[in-house]
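User: I'm writing a tutorial on reading structure tokens. Could you give me a worked example: one chain, its sequence, then its tokens, then a sentence or two explaining what the tokens reveal?
Assistant: Sure. Here is the example chain.
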Amino acid sequence: MNYRVQPTAQVDDSAEIGAGSSVWELAQIREEAKLGEGCVVGRGAYVGTGVQIGDNVKLQNYALVYEPAELGDGVFVGPAAVLTNDHNPRSVDPEGKQKRGGDWEAVGVKVAEGASLGARSVCVAPVRVGRWAMVAAGAVVTKDVPDFALVVGVPARQVGWVGRNGQRLTEKTGEPGIWVCPQSGELYEERDGLLSERRA
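And here are its predicted structure tokens:
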């Protein structure tokens, strides 16, 4: 075994855990879940049945990732963040009978490469959080988040752009639509409401 699982964690035999990953106390990894290499699953975190997680992903303490979520490489899920999976949640059907696994259709959250979900944020499925986007702590995401977008509030709304290193971008003086990272100097180009890295 080339990964680490604490004795109090529960990892189903059918789950796949990548090399160098760590699963900490009281975490639960369900059936057929797949974690890539170098992942960290914090204390009390939950990974649902069949969830797909890329390499170098961090799930902080008590993060809840319900199936059929998909997380790309380098995703950060903050403490107590929740990725839901039921667009119309009910415990019972209209006749009052308790719903079971086959009585509803799970919908998932997709989080693309490098994106970050802040502490206690909630992603209400089905939504996609774009590459390198940042969801602020406590935000409730109810619609798709573009690549590099910074979203805050309830419901979450875009208030700016962030670069790959998480710094908020500033618009370059005299060049509308060109955004710069104040830390790295990397340039980004905004076109039709979407941001992309500017190629040299």
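What the tokens reveal: The domain at 4-162 is CATH 2.160.10.10 (UDP N-Acetylglucosamine Acyltransferase; domain 1). Residues 131 and 178 are 18 Å apart (CA to CA).
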